[in-house]
Amino acid sequence: MNTTTMEPPVHEEVRTTTCYMCACRCGIKVHLKNGEVRFIEGNPDHPLNQGVLCAKGSSGIMKQYSPARLTKPLRRKAGAERGRGEFEEISWDEAFAIMEERLAKIRATDPKRFAIFTGRDQMQALTGLFAKNYGTPNYAAHGGFCSVNMAAGLIYTIGGSFWEFGGPDLDRAKLFVMIGTAEDHHSNPLKIALSKFKRNGGRFISINPVRTGYSAIADEWIPIKPGTDGALLLALIHEIIKQGLYDRDFLAKYSNAAELVNLDPNSPEYGMFVRFEVPPEEGCFDAQNKLWWDRELNRPVSTHTLGVDPRLLGEFKLSDGTPVKPAFQLLAERVEQYTPEWAADITGIPAETIRRLAHEMGITARDEKIELPISWTDSWDVEHKTITGNPVAFHAMRGLAAHSNGFQTIRALGILMSILGTIDRPGGFRHKAPFPRPIPPCPKTPKGPEDVQPNTPLNGMPLGWPADPDDLFVDEQGNPVRIDKGFSWEYPLSVHGLMHNVITNAWRGDPYSIDTLMIFMANMSWNSTMNAEQVRKMLNDKDENGEYKIPFLIVADAFQSEMTAFADLVLPDTTYLERHDVMSMLDRPISEFDGPVDSVRIPVLPPTGQCKPFQEVLIELGSRLKLPVFVKEDGTRKYRDYPDFITNFETAPGSGIGFLAGWRGKGGEKSMRGEPNPNQWQMYEKNNCVYHHHLPKSYQYMRNWNQGYLQWAQAHGLTRYAEPINIHIYSEVLQKFRLAAQGKTDGRQPPQHLRKRIETYFDPLPFFYEPIESQLSDKHKYPLNAVTQRPMAMYHSWDSQNAWLRQIHTYNYLYVNPKTAAAQGIADGDWIWVESMHGKVRCMARFSEAVEPGTVWTWNAIGKAAGAWNLEANANECKQGFLLNHVISEELPAHEAGAHVSNSDPVTGQAAWYDVRVRIYKAGDDEEKATWPQFDPVPPAPGTPARRGWQSYFAGKFTNKD
Predict the structure, then answer these.
(1) CA-angle at 237, arms to 231 and 242, nearest 5°
(2) What is each CA distance from 395 to 149, 190, 420, 435, in whole angstroms?
(3) Average pLDDT, the chain
(4) 234 SS3 class
């Protein structure tokens, strides 16, 4: 009997979504066959990446089918030690019951004993909302250990920042200077922009200790010693002022450069701007009540008086004898000492190169101006028929930020861009909605422990923007209220929190102990922590009663990272292909220069196994705990799920402002503001998953002072006030903290042991100081700087476990300049030791002339702990890959500021990843040819797929017809 075998029908489908595999958030098209991913390509209609896709995006298929996937909720086995990865499967009902019981008890007694910290996710508006409604102050995302200095330094100076909130206008720039930027930051859009810029004849200068990625195509690479960027920037400001190449008109009209500063040391207003009237200044904006010195009348007048030409330089006396100087005069005096010769000794850049660079910047800005025939009206009702641009653009990121002097360095960068006249003008730096914001932005944290009460939402935002000492979150003695000590006198402007100190502080019980720590999407026992070996011990450490010092750890992740092994409860998250998500105007949108842009992620696959999106976990937990935002007045559940929450949530009842700006109103006929639309998700899906609101051309520039734009932004909830946002060449915010430290104010004052620290670092004008760890290091013993950077092909450890990407970066080397290596007798490929005052690692050396001789560097997050990510215990990542974090500490050696001071910027709490000093030497011939330290391997977590070679995986999935 003959039988015919019928092949199952083949179903092919292409789904469009927004990829949030990494911070770039490119649009993609996912090709499915019979419900499985076959191919991923860039979406040519997406405004961000325009179809361009990097290795990460293309290899997303192997992330989806990774053997490290967590697929079931897990509980640590009774009696099992943390770190061994011994779990039992449980149901989601059990997992929610455990969390509900524990978190309800904490909330009813002391909410701050619950802490929630998240990694590089795209839902900080939601996680922050959850924390606020729960009532815990102990919440932050990844920013404190990534680039908070970049955000804070520029937002406190120009009202906006690089990356999501602003960037270089390479379509019109003539000169582009990139400084401290690794190749993964904004990679696809920046690659597109750079290729056009170069084809159009633009000149590209890269300033970086390492020449990789973007720097490889620069017209000029200028190597610089890590942590000395501030010295270079101040020397450039010195030269531009000395040569008279600053944009005087721009500074006078649009910054506080001409405003008069009180210089009477006996005045309580010393170092503050003189005001002609001092009413209560309500709101977070610069009141227009300050003085200029009029050139013609030779006397003080109100700023922006029609027809006034203010002095930028000089010293004057008011009628009552008060000595005053314009802020720009103080800047000129400050940078007088910062000569190119001085900077050359610090940075390693020749003085003649610094002079040439300053001259090129100034001449390009002055002599190659762009004029666009666009009419606009400024905040003082002056009509302008054109918009002029000075076409010098900059881009900077973590290389400047991740130092303990990064805040003042980035302030210097903001001022350099400002004196060249490049802020929100054609060819320079341009804002992206929802920025610019007032300086500082309006949200504030609670003010003291009384704002944290049982069963009550937090009285303030978990994260905020202090404007003066009274905005700090401290008790009556000046001690911190947050577990990470954020917004305290130790780190006053820590606008993103200090995630890197949470585990250490909780372990030590400083300032108090916590009960439960929830971590999402953050590998806090490995590459997302400093001092990784000791932090792993802290997670496993017990008190005298045999109880863990951090009693309960909840870890939510899509993969079996090093961190999951320490969890008491593991929550399996979905991948980016299995979840709804929003790139929201309330969070981190993907706006363009010409207007607000937000986007959504639509799942193209169902969740694997029992995976559940972390957003759904928070919605469910919030509903069970009856947190006000998630329940109705009668306590019943308010939102069915996360998509329903996104559709119906409003920032205030009836505000018409929610997470998504497109297709609002009951029928989707409104934008930016409107009633909830039940079909909003479907309308996004039909429109390429993106909403792009194009502003009128008259609103697209000069937005700090553009009357039309500011009124539009206020009407649509992007900002509270339509007041001008003047550039802060001189920072009164910083001066207020300094006055408190000097005991010249009646409000809050710092503890005695921190007075000198505040007075020193809260200088209203940028200044250079050697990174703090370097100051405390023996530089003869540890002569080299050590830095890491993320490769463009990977994004943290999430991608370095990807089967395809592993073929590119299976392990990592320490890259050393051949001259540096030769001095230590090290040959290319040798096994070496890298040692700091904190610890040491063994790794392989690789010669590279594309690195500044006093610097060594490696790729981040390639090295793995044995067995993590469901890799074999002898995988190359475990035996030849290494983690530089082992030689970096989260705390500084004891010094005058205290015995346990974070290794961070003293202004913002930015983790100082790049301040470590090391020495290198050859490993012994008798030593194992493997990286060190090594850790006991962990077994595969229950529910993770079987390990298989990727070729065998596809052999089982595809037929010849595929």
Answers:
(1) 125
(2) 14, 10, 15, 17
(3) 94
(4) helix
Other CB atoms within 10 A of residue 315 CB = 14
Q: Where does 255-373 have alpha helices with state H?
A: 327-335, 340-347, 351-367
What was the pLDDT predicted at 1?
33
Helix axes 351-367, 229-242, angle to 10 degrees: 60
Which of 76, 21, 5 is CA-nearest to residue 559? 21
DSSP state of 664: B
Tens digits of residue pLDDT in 521-572: 999 999 999 999 999 999 999 999 999 999 999 999 999 999 999 999 999 9
Predicted confidence at residue 851, as pLDDT, reads 97
Q: How far apart are the first and last CA of the chain?
A: 31
Count of Cβ atoms closer than 10 Å to residue 737 Cβ:
28
Structure tokens at 107: 């909330």
Query: Which residues on adjacent β-strands are paired with residue 310?
Result: 294
Pair 63, 798: CB distance under 8 Å: yes
Contact in structure between 751 and 466 (CB atoms under 8 Å): no
SS3 content of the chain, % helix, strand, coil (to 5): 30, 20, 55
- Which segments within 780-939 are labelled E, that is strand? 784-789, 814-816, 831-835, 840-847, 855-859, 917-922
Distances (CA, A) of 738 to 230, 275, 419, 424, 596: 21, 19, 25, 30, 37
Can you read off the two tokens belonging to residue 759? Answer: 């007075």
In this structure, what token pair is assigned to residue 962? 């595929």
Q: Which residue has the tokens 């207003």?
A: 269
What kind and span of H or E run contains 207? strand 203-207
C-beta of residue 524 within 8 angstroms of C-beta of residue 567: no
- Amino acid letter, residue 377: T
Beta strands in 589-633 (DSSP E): 597-601
Letter string b/e over residues 325-354, b meaning 16 or more CB atoms within 10 A of that residue's CB: bbbbbbbbebbeebbbebbbebbbbebebb
pLDDT of residue 4: 39
As a whole number of angstroms, the distance between CA 45 and CA 478 comes to 53
DSSP 216: G
Any bridge partners for residue 69, and if so which? 559
Task: For residue 230, give every residue at least 6 positions away whose Cβ sits within 8 Å of its Cβ, in sequence order, or none.
Answer: 405, 408, 409, 412, 766, 767, 768
Residues 212 and 178: beta-carbon distance below 8 Å: no
Token readout for 788 is 């890491």
Taking the complete model, does pTM exceed 0.85, yes or no?
Answer: yes
CB 574, CB 613: distance < 8 Å? yes
**H/E stretch holding 177:** strand 175-179
DSSP for 552-585, please give it.
EEEEEESB--TGGGG-SEEEEPP-TTSS-EEE-T
